[in-house]
Design goal:
Blueprint: E1 2-11, E2 14-21, E3 32-36, H1 43-55, H2 59-62, E4 70-72, E5 78-80, E6 94-102, E7 108-116, E8 130-135, E9 140-141, H3 146-157, H4 161-167, E10 169-171, H5 172-179, H6 183-194, H7 198-225, H8 232-317, H9 319-383, H10 388-392, H11 394-461, H12 465-491, H13 493-500, H14 527-615, H15 620-626, H16 628-699, H17 707-778, H18 783-835, H19 841-866, E11 870-874, E12 881-885, E13 891-894, H20 900-918, E14 926-930, H21 938-953, E15 957-961, H22 965-970, E16 974-981, E17 984-989
Parallel strand pairs: 3-15, 3-16, 10-14, 14-15
Antiparallel strand pairs: 1-2, 1-6, 4-5, 6-7, 7-8, 8-9, 11-12, 12-13, 16-17
Helix pairs in contact: 5-20, 6-19, 7-18, 7-19, 8-17, 8-18, 9-16, 11-14, 11-16, 12-14, 12-19, 15-16, 19-20
Length: 990
């Protein structure tokens, strides 16, 4: 994994766009570079941008453990203090972080994290961040959700966030904490830093599995112990009693059947008697109701005959009144038609009268409005009578004005053009002098560059780079092999002692071999000298190669400079020719514009003189000169208004005579309409009076009802009386038959009741005899009680035998499960004794002990380059660390006795060792170290820089953040973060 570029915008103090590109010079050739600047300028923000783009997280925000603490954003919104969106600079609407990197598959990718505020406003609410991933080589965007894209980034670089922050980005404070932490904290930190949390989980899982297995075994054993079984004697006795109770129960059930048969007979006969008694009562009631209905029907029939006779007499008496009423009805119809006719005529007369009055009023109103408009137009013409000539000669006047305006504009335009051309000509003179002076300088620089190129080519031809590359690769491989062998031998000191005792020809006690090539390897004490010598040789060879590369780079730059000078000379000559041509063109344009200006002035004077004659004076020119367009529009508007008012006045005068005749016509026709209305009103009142008299006379006959209605009501009543008499006759016949039938049913029910009473006495006697016989045989105990007791005994015996059989089956089936649980429980108990614990500490300490040993081997390799005085070891049987002081005869010292600078060196060695431990299966080509060098003296600082230089020779590009001046001065390539005031900073690469 290799970081190619870091970009961002509006992050913390870095306002606007910023970019750090490692693919261009000087960062491309720099193996180590510094990120420098004052405190708070934004150095660590560059590393935050890298983490944001790759993982949407940063080490600093992840350290905000108090997630329940919320900080205020704009518009009173609050967010957790660990939210990385707080890196967006206040007062900005959006920002982003972007990283280009080389993935494990060999492709270049670009990962981007961006955030914005609502409505793209500075005071808008923070939106959810967005992530994007591009394949730069294939020029396509990866698709997926935010979590899927972040997982894809981890897959491409081969590192999680935790692994990245210990193999690519090293935060010194974490490792200083690790050096002096307690054992429990050290184990927890090792889990966090090395990704070995699995061991604690396994330990807790073993403990939980052991508890579950033991609980399952105890539960099954408790269930088996809780099951009770009968003895063989008790089981045999229960079976005998069960058979006896079953036989007794069979006899009792037969007796119960006999008793129930006798009881059912008595009960059925009693129910039959009760039913017949109810039927006898119902039949008597029905007979009584039928007799009553028959008598009522006879009475109503006689009354109906009387009503029919009385109705016929009343109708004969009304015959004369009906005839008189029909004659009045005919007269009333004629009177109603007359009233309606006169009402329609009166309404029409009133409508015609109203229309005549409205037309007369409207005509007089129009006549008055016309006279008022005539008077207004006449007054307006008198007011502007002296300007009538302007309106009549408008076309000629406008022609002169337009000609004058065009000439005036041409003069102004030509004047400005002449001034502009003269200014251009002056600039061309200056440009010509500059171009001629520049061309002379370029010719001098061209000769010097050609001489430098020849000299540089001679120097490069004298060096053989192919042989130099082979030497560098050979020395680097030999040195790496010695470092690995040294770490391996240091981790297995006892094995080395055994190897020293081996003799050629004698068998090895481990493998039995007679040959021992490992004995011939260099001793551990000689390896540091060999490694130091190879390191010095490698640095010298690398310096030679770097010098050759710098020479090639300088040669290429000189060649590019030569090409650029040739190009610039050609361009200067072209510029000189172009300037001379433009000067001649300017002189021609000035002459042409001066001729146009003279012609336009003559035309202007002629047009103004002609316009003065039409206006009669020259006072108008002042208004025209101020705004010609507005003046012309005023003249046009006045002429149009003059002609429109003239035509309108003539039209109104013609309409006035017609309106006067119309008013006189409407006034003469109105009296005849008034007389017609009065006559129609008198006729209508007379007809209404006659109609009222006839209506009063008719209301006295038949109570005002129509004659046909009275006759129809009589006919309907007569038909109803006939229908009622017919219905009453039918009811008499039906009720007479029903009464005879009910009387026969009552007699039959009485005979049935007498027979059922005799049968009931016989059945009751049989039941009484059976009960007496049962009581004598069983001592007075009832059949039901005896039957219930015997049934209960039989069920109890059967239940106890069935439960005993089921318990035997349960015990047999659970014995196999108990044995399987016992084996499982014993297995987990043994494993729990070895590595299980409730908090995961037992297996974690075992695993972290081995992990810590490996880490210390890597760290001691780095510590030899930083300080040969110290070596780190693990306190036996613990996770604590101790320091071996070689300058004091390998005295064991506590890590708390180290000074600040010594603690930093040891912590840096641990950090670099952990970096190697985290990335030992993949090539990590970028390394960033944040702060921590301020506590070192000059000599120790030099040693630390030498160690970092050695890391560079391993192919890594190393970035260091530090305030130490000596360190930044020693590193030639720097990314400097400069303050610009108001909390803003900007980047520059030096």
């Amino acid at each position: 994994m290799k970081v190619l570029a870091i970009r961002g915008r509006n992050l913390a103090s870095l306002e606007g766009e910023f970019e750090v590109d490692f693919t261009v010079e000087p960062l491309l050739s720099a193996g180590i570079f510094a990120i420098s600047g004052p405190t708070g300028a934004g150095k660590s923000t560059i590393l935050d941008a890298m983490c944001l783009a790759l993982f949407a997280r940063t080490p600093r925000t992840d350290q905000a453990k108090e997630n329940n603490v919320k900080l205020r954003d704009v518009n009173e919104e609050v967010l957790p203090q660990s939210d990385p969106r707080f890196l967006l600079r206040r007062g900005t609407a959006s920002g982003y972080a972007e990283v280009d990197f080389l993935a494990l598959n060999g492709h270049r990718y670009r990962s981007r994290w961006s955030v914005g505020r609502a409505r793209d406003k500075e005071n808008g609410r923070l939106q959810s961040p967005r992530v994007a991933l591009y394949n730069i080589d294939q020029e396509k965007e990866e698709q997926g959700t935010r979590s899927e894209l972040q997982s894809r980034v981890v897959e491409l670089i081969g590192l999680t966030f935790e692994q990245f922050t210990r193999s690519v980005l090293l935060a010194q404070n974490d490792f200083s904490t690790f050096l002096k932490a307690e054992q429990g904290e050290k184990a927890s930190l090792l889990e966090k830093l090395t990704g070995t949390e699995l061991y604690s989980s396994v330990s807790r899982l073993i403990f939980e599995k052991n508890a579950v297995a033991k609980e399952a075994y105890d539960k099954i054993q408790a269930r088996i112990q809780g099951i009770e079984l009968l003895t063989e004697e008790a089981e045999q006795e229960l079976q005998t009693r069960l058979k006896e109770s079953e036989a007794a129960l069979s006899d009792l059930e037969k007796s119960k059947v006999e008793q129930q048969a006798l009881q059912e007979g008595v009960k059925a006969t009693g129910q039959q008697i009760a039913t017949r008694q109810v039927q006898q009562k119902e039949a008597a009631g029905k007979l009584l109701r039928a007799t009553e209905l028959l008598n009522t029907a006879r009475k109503e029939y006689e009354q109906g005959i009387q009503d029919e006779q009385r109705s016929d007499a009343d109708f004969k008496a009304l015959q004369q009144e009906l005839q008189q009423a029909r004659r009045l009805d005919v007269r009333l119809d004629e009177a109603i038609r007359s009233v309606k006719d006169t009402e329609i005529r009166l309404r029409d007369a009133l409508q015609r009268k109203k229309e005549g009055e409205d037309k007369l009023k409207a005509a007089r109103t129009r006549q008055e409005h016309g006279m008022a408009e005539i008077n207004r137009l006449t007054d307006w013409r008198k007011r502007y009578e002296r300007k009538e000539s302007i309106a009549e000669q408008l076309s000629a006047l406008l022609l002169h004005l337009d000609t004058a305006s065009g000439a005036r504009q041409t003069i102004e335009k030509s004047t400005k053009t002449i001034e502009s051309i003269k200014q251009t000509a002056s600039r061309l003179v200056v440009q010509l002098e500059t171009v001629q002076r520049t061309a002379g300088n370029k010719q001098v620089a061209l000769r010097k560059t050609e001489e430098a190129i020849g000299k540089q080519e001679q120097e490069l031809k004298s060096q053989d780079m192919e042989t130099l590359d082979k030497q560098i690769e050979s020395v680097r491989v030999e040195r790496e092999n010695l470092l690995i062998e040294q770490a391996r031998q240091t981790a297995s000191g006892d094995i080395m002692e055994l190897r020293k005792k081996l003799q050629e020809g004698s068998p090895c006690p481990v493998c039995g071999s007679l040959h021992h090539p490992a004995v011939t390897h260099a001793a551990v004490s000689e390896m540091p000298k060999l490694i130091a010598a190879l390191t010095l040789q490698l640095q010298q060879l690398t310096a030679r190669k770097a010098a050759y590369g710098a020479g090639e780079k300088q040669l290429n730059q000189l060649r590019q400079q030569l090409l650029q000078l040739h190009k610039e000379l050609t361009e200067a000559e072209q510029s000189r020719t172009d300037i001379l041509g433009r000067q001649k063109l300017a002189e021609t344009q000035i002459t042409r514009e001066e001729s146009i200006c003279a012609e336009s002035k003559e035309t202007l004077n002629k047009s103004l003189s002609a316009a003065n004659r039409l206006f009669g004076n020259d006072e108008w020119q002042k208004a025209w000169l101020q705004d010609p367009d507005s003046f012309r529009e005023t003249l046009t508007t006045f002429a149009r208004q003059w002609h429109e008012n003239t035509e309108k006045l003539q039209q109104l005068q013609r309409e006035q005579s017609a309106q006067k005749a119309e008013c006189e016509s409407y006034a003469s026709f109105l009296p005849s309409l008034i007389r017609e209305t009065e006559e129609a009103t008198l006729r209508h009142e007379k007809n209404r009076t006659e109609l009222s008299a006839l209506q009063a006379e008719r209301s006295k006959l038949l109570s005002g009802k129509p004659a046909d209605q009275v006759e129809q009501e009589y006919n309907l009543r007569k038909e109803e009386l006939k229908e009622r008499l017919k219905r009453l006759q039918t009811v008499q016949t039906e009720q007479s038959g029903i009464a005879d039938q009910l009387k026969g049913i009552s007699d039959q029910i009485a005979r049935d009741l007498e027979k059922a009473s005799e049968d009931l006495l016989l059945r009751q006697k049989a039941l009484s005899d059976w009960s007496e016989s049962w009581n004598e045989k069983h001592g007075g105990e009832s059949l039901d009680a005896l039957l219930a007791r015997v049934t209960q005994e039989k069920n109890e015996y059967a239940f106890r035998l069935r439960s005993n059989a089921e318990n035997k089956q349960k015990i047999a089936s659970q014995q196999k499960e108990l044995e399987a649980c016992r084996v499982q429980s014993e297995r987990w108990a043994k494993l729990n004794d070895l590595a299980g614990s409730a908090d995961g500490a037992k297996f974690r300490r075992i695993a972290q002990g081995y992990t810590l040993d490996v880490l210390l081997n890597y760290a001691n390799v780095q510590l030899r380059d930083l300080s040969r005085r110290y070596r780190l070891e693990r306190v036996p049987e613990t996770l604590a660390l101790q320091v071996i002081d070689r300058d004091m005869c390998d005295e064991i010292r506590t890590v708390h006795s180290l000074s600040g600078g010594e603690s930093f060196l040891v912590s840096l060695a641990l950090a670099l060792g952990l970096s190697s431990l985290s990335s030992n299966r993949m090539k990590v080509e970028s390394l960033f170290i944040d702060e921590g060098f301020g506590s070192l003296d000059a000599d120790t600082l030099r040693i630390a820089m030498d160690a970092l230089e050695s890391l560079r020779t391993q192919g890594r590009k190393i970035g260091v953040i530090s305030h130490v001046q000596e360190m930044t001065e020693r590193i030639p390539v720097q990314i400097r973060v400069n303050r610009a005031g108001n909390g803003r900073s900007y980047l520059e690469v030096i």
